[in-house]
Structure formats: structure tokens, C-alpha cells
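Q: A small favour: would you put together sequence and C-alpha cells for a protein?
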Amino acid sequence: MNNVEKFGFGSLWFPEATSFESFSLAAYLLANSNKLIVGTGIANIYARDAVTSAQGHDGLNALFKNRFILGLGVSHVSFVEEIRGHKFGKPVSSMSDYLEKLGNADIDPNLRMKDRNIILAALGPRMLELAAAKSKGAIPYSVTPDYTAKAREILGPEAWLCVEQKVCLTNIESEARNVARKQMGRYLRWPNYLNNWMRMGFKEADLEGHGSSKFLDAMVCWGSEKRIMSYLEEHFSSGADHVVVQALRPDGMEGTDFSVLQALAPK
């Protein structure tokens, strides 16, 4: 975290899944940074009721000078039903209901914010439309610049579009592909990602096994600093306001490759 701020990046995003609870980790990150914007990518709507999310969002922004962004998502059936013991509802209607309850949450009027920093983990067109209508925007995961352009069309010009991109600073093809296989393997079994990749033009054969070379190279951009920067710029030129860089280590070990962040740091 200190390196991220030291390198000059303006924001830090983190997942929830079954690791640190979103609001507690956000509070820690905000308390140990000075100007960094901290965002959840994403907080599971089944992990806490809408009133709690309203309290958490408004409380953190009151305490840390509006530096918190709440990224919300419906997660996956396995995380919701098998791990948390809830019933997984229809994604768009469940998110819409949640946002309505969050907006109407009866919390301390001295704390309550009128204009909230909320974005949605949106992949399909209907969730993107909901993001534009009922939140500040969207944070799509594992997408290409072509997808970014189409998402911008659906969201319109005003909504925030924050896309995630995995990168690996290596010119060794076998290293990069091994990293990509390890990273993408977990996602290749989840229908929402599969459906979105099919919409993006990938074929069933691209998504079988560990994924085709074409698919892996699109999901994890690898090569030189110049090549990686060029791919990130494609997202911006396609309509992204912000690109969340996930810097993967070429050796395949867990953790962030800070050499990539240093290389890509704002000059």
C-alpha cells in the first residue's frame, strides 16, 4: 500500500471473496494512507444488508474525507449459497432491490450522504444499464479494450467506467502463459464470466481446459513495459476513465509485482 501511494498512483482496489471483510480492510487502508482513494472490487451484497452498506460507505467517507468508493457485486452462486448459506437471486433484480434499500436506508442524518461513491461489478448489458441508472458507474473484471468500448456505449458519457486489467512484466512466453493459466483457471468455471467472454467473441474452444493462448493473452497482457502500457492505453482510448492494474509476478507466486507498478507509475 505504501508503495502504491509512493509511486504516485491515486487509488487502490481490493477484492473480498472469503478474505478480509471489505469495510474493515478499507478502514485500515484509509487510516494508513494520506491521499489514496480506496475502493472495493467488489463487496458482496449478500455479505451485509443494505443499511449496513449505507453506514459503512457514509462512515468511511466522513472519517476519511471522501476517499472511499464502494464497488458492489452479486458475486457467484457458490460464494452465496454454499459458503454464506443465502439464496442466490436473479442478479439484476437483486442488485436493483439492494440499491433501492441502500438509497432509502434510515441512518443517522448527521452521517447520511446524499451523493454516494457507489459503482457496480457489471458485465452484461442489463447490469451495465442498471449501473448507469442507479450508481456512479461500473467496474468490469477480466475484459478487453473492445469490451470497454461497448460498455462505454451502454453506460453513456457520464458514468464512471473502471476496468480491471491483469499484466505480467516478462518477455518469456511460457512464463506469461503459466501465470495466466493459474490466474484464469478459477474464473473459467463461473457462468457469468463464461457468458460474458462468449459475448466478447471468444469461442467455446477458447474457454475449454486452461483456456486458449488467444484467451490467455487477452486476459493477462505480458511483454515489455512499452507493450503493457500500450494495452492499458487501449482501454483508455476505448472509453475507460480508470484502469485497475493487477500486477502479477512472472514466477507465478502470490502477491503483487511492485516492479510493474514502479515501471507504470505516473511520470
